Amino acid sequence: MNKAEIQGVKTLLETPKDIVIIPHKNPDGDAIGSTLALWHYLKKGQHKVTIVAPNDYPSFLKWMPGEAEIVKFDYERDHAKKILKASNVIFTLDFNDLSRIGDMEATVAACEATFIMIDHHQQPSNYAKFMYSNTTMSSTCEMVYHFITFLGDEDMINAEMATCMYTGIMTDTGSFRFKATTSTTHRIIANLIDKGAENASIHNAIYDTNSLSRLQLLGCALKNLVVLEAYNTVYITVSKEELIRYDFKKGDTEGFVNYGLSLKGIKFAAIFIENLQEPYVKMSLRSKGDFSVNEFARAHFNGGGHTNAAGGRSEASMEGTVKKFTEILTEYKSVLS
């Protein structure tokens, strides 16, 4: 953000406002962590602040301080609409296009509030008055840390805020191993620990919560893994029947795609998961090096994200989705082989 934008935000927040903070649909650790961190911060400024999430999220994110106060649009639609309509300011975090909030889109688009975007994904839409967009950042939580610093309030960061930001940075960097993890990221992490984030406890709360059924589903997914040697690519399929067989819970397939990318010599990994409620196939895409899964997803599967991590969807059957995917790969053989 430039100095004029920072001053504009400061001026806007000088007096108490009715504020809503929104993460994307199917929020992950960075989305929930960033919204909760900002929620704690803004409450210190005597604002009336509510987080409205488009839908529910995995249980391994429900321990974070303040999480119980989040309003879920799909469960409390009338209440959420009332809160949104009354808002003066709306923060949108960890997404950059209103299509990413699902059924909330029309309601939010009609709001007369001042919009502030904080996001690190590529190709942002131009709907916010104040836009803090930086695709080089490791996570939206890292950006929230900078945002608070821009406003001169770094000293206000407490243990609750630090815990939420640490969680989002940790999850979006793959426990600090992805390319976007910089020396600045590590310095911020050190500051968050100093301010009360208990790193070992946070890691355990996120990653050491496996159920037997989730591990069995992982085993099933890995049995379905297919290697396409000519393209240095792997894909994994998970059907509705397999999800039901292993008592699928929201978030159970998180991280499965990374097992494919861990294979020696693989540059591109994909997982295709049939949706239990709606007739489409959800996909997660990961890559190494310069191959952009963001561009791949945008071009072929109504998705997007980052260069090395993106998502998409297919309205075709699982068989049709796999067929389309493998046929498209022929266009990329020169960059993948």
How would you explain this protein's 3D organization?
The structure is a single chain. With 337 residues, the chain is of the alpha/beta class. The chain has two domains: 3-207, Alpha-Beta Complex (inorganic pyrophosphatase (n-terminal core)), CATH 3.90.1640.10; 212-336, Diaminopimelate Epimerase, Chain A, domain 1 (Roll). 40% of the residues lie in helices and 18% in strands. It contains 14 helices and twelve strands. It has helices spanning 3-12, 29-43, 77-86, 105-109, 140-150, 159-172, 183-194, 199-207, 212-223, 240-245, 256-261, 293-300, 318-329, 333-336, and strands at residues 18-22, 48-53, 71-72, 89-93, 114-119, 130-133, 226-228, 233-238, 268-274, 281-287, 304-305, 309-314. It has a six-stranded parallel beta sheet, sandwiched between helices. The longest helix has 15 residues, at 29-43. The chain is globular and about 60 Å long.
What portion of residues is helical?
Answer: 25-40%
Query: Could you say which overall geometry the principal axes of the C-alpha atoms support?
Result: globular
Domain count, please report it.
Answer: 2
Relevant CATH superfamily of the largest domain: inorganic pyrophosphatase (n-terminal core)
Number of strands: 12
Measured by DSSP, the beta-strand proportion falls in: 15-25%
The profile of the biggest β sheet is:
6 strands, parallel
Straight-line distance between termini: 40 Å
- By secondary-structure content and strand pairing, the structural class works out as alpha/beta
